[in-house]
């Protein structure tokens, strides 16, 4: 390949990948002629394929957590042939910084991370307190010495994804969903841990409130195979309603398309929440043990709900106090107050 290209090495989490998307907007604005490739884990790659700035998604062949130095060297030889001018290493580990260094990419941009001196030659440093995630990744597109003011951060582009009409129609046809009727998407799961999950009874109570006002609404429950139990519990409390329990029954690409057809999305702090935000769907984001200011949604119609208790955000996978008040006391009635005007505006 004779044309110079840019390589972006993806984070390992879906939500982080979505929140890194504004960096690509900044890179494309700086070098509109330069194709951007993304190297991503297979589980995350569908997210990048829905971003218009991405020329090609390359899937990592490496096992999770393994150094695999010989395999990284072989893969770096393949990357060398693609002619990259620069690489943006979003994970903070040494093993991902090795790849562009072994590939001989001249400019390698990233955070200090695991003391990656030499491997990263345009090094940024974390701030204390930490920046919101969108600003954290977007800063890699600016000179190291540039100080980002609050006004500059507010002016950053929003995460942005797109789904074609064909993708939407295909998934609705396969699953028997009527795209002409309202669709409420609920995401009861959270990869980080149980502390981030709003109780199943609360999700069910919210769905009943929506159905009482809009009986034609189709409720879809989205999540990975790990979320099947949480989604089953919600579905079990909605007997008689038209509920599609799709946890583990769709690919990530299909889940993205389903979110794109949804009238509104209610989700814990999770990857699906940030996908809904990037697709500009009306979204209600539920925060308990995590900071709502660190990774908020950016939709035109968005509500971040947190009780902001004294013990939060604890950032723990399970409630260290054993009561999970930050989510349990966040009632369906409170969430319905924020969701109802969004549905009325559609």
From TrEMBL:
Fetch the InterPro entries from UniProt. Glyco_trans_9, LPS_LOS_Heptosyltrfase, RfaF
Q: Name one GO biological process term.
A: lipopolysaccharide core region biosynthetic process
Q: What is its EC number?
A: 2.4.99.24
Write down any Gene Ontology CC term: cytosol
Query: What keyword terms does UniProt attach to this protein?
Result: Glycosyltransferase, Transferase
The EC category is transferase
Which reaction is recorded as catalysed by this protein?
Answer: an L-alpha-D-Hep-(1->5)-[alpha-Kdo-(2->4)]-alpha-Kdo-(2->6)-lipid A + ADP-L-glycero-beta-D-manno-heptose = an L-alpha-D-Hep-(1->3)-L-alpha-D-Hep-(1->5)-[alpha-Kdo-(2->4)]-alpha-Kdo-(2->6)-lipid A + ADP + H(+)
Q: Which CDD domains would you find in this protein's record?
A: GT9_LPS_heptosyltransferase
Q: Which GO molecular function annotations are given, in alphabetical order?
A: ADP-heptose-lipopolysaccharide heptosyltransferase activity
Is Transferase among the key words of this record?
Answer: yes
Which superkingdom is the protein from? Bacteria
Q: Where is the signal peptide?
A: none
| PANTHER family per UniProt | ADP-HEPTOSE--LPS HEPTOSYLTRANSFERASE 2 (PTHR30160:SF7), TETRAACYLDISACCHARIDE 4'-KINASE-RELATED (PTHR30160)
Protein family: Belongs to the glycosyltransferase 9 family.
Q: What is this protein called?
A: lipopolysaccharide heptosyltransferase II
Task: Write the lineage as a comma-separated list.
Answer: Bacteria, Pseudomonadati, Pseudomonadota, Betaproteobacteria, Burkholderiales
């Amino acid at each position: 390949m004779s044309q110079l290209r840019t390589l972006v090495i993806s984070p390992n989490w879906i939500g982080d990948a979505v929140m890194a998307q504004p960096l690509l907007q900044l890179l494309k604005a700086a070098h509109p002629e330069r194709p951007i490739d993304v190297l991503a884990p297979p589980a995350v790659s569908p997210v990048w394929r829905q971003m218009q700035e991405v020329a090609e998604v390359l899937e990592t062949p490496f096992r999770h957590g393994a150094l695999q130095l010989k395999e990284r060297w072989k893969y770096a030889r393949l990357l060398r042939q693609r002619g990259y001018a620069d690489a943006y290493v979003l994970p903070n580990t040494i093993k991902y910084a090795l790849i562009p260094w072994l590939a001989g990419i001249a400019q390698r941009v990233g955070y200090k991370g695991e003391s990656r001196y030499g491997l990263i030659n345009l090094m940024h440093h974390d701030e204390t307190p930490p920046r919101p995630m969108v600003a954290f990744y977007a800063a890699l597109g600016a000179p190291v010495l540039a100080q980002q003011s609050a006004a500059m951060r507010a002016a950053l582009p929003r995460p942005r994804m797109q789904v074609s009409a064909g993708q939407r129609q295909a998934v609705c046809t396969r699953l028997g969903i009527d795209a002409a009727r309202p669709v409420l998407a609920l995401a009861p799961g959270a990869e980080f841990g149980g502390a981030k999950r709003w109780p199943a009874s609360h999700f069910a109570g919210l769905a009943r409130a929506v159905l009482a006002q809009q009986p034609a609404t189709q409720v879809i429950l989205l999540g990975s195979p790990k979320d099947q139990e949480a989604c089953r519990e919600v579905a079990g409390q909605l007997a008689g309603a038209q509920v599609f329990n799709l946890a583990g029954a769709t690919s990530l690409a299909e889940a993205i398309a389903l979110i794109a057809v949804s009238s509104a999305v209610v989700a814990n702090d999770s990857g699906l929440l940030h996908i809904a935000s990037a697709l500009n769907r009306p979204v209600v984001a539920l925060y308990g043990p995590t900071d709502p200011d660190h990774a908020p949604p950016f939709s035109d119609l968005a509500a971040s709900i947190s009780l902001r208790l004294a013990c939060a955000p604890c950032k723990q996978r399970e409630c260290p106090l054993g009561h999970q008040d930050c989510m349990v006391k966040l009632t369906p009635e409170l969430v319905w107050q924020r969701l109802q005007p969004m549905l009325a505006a559609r």
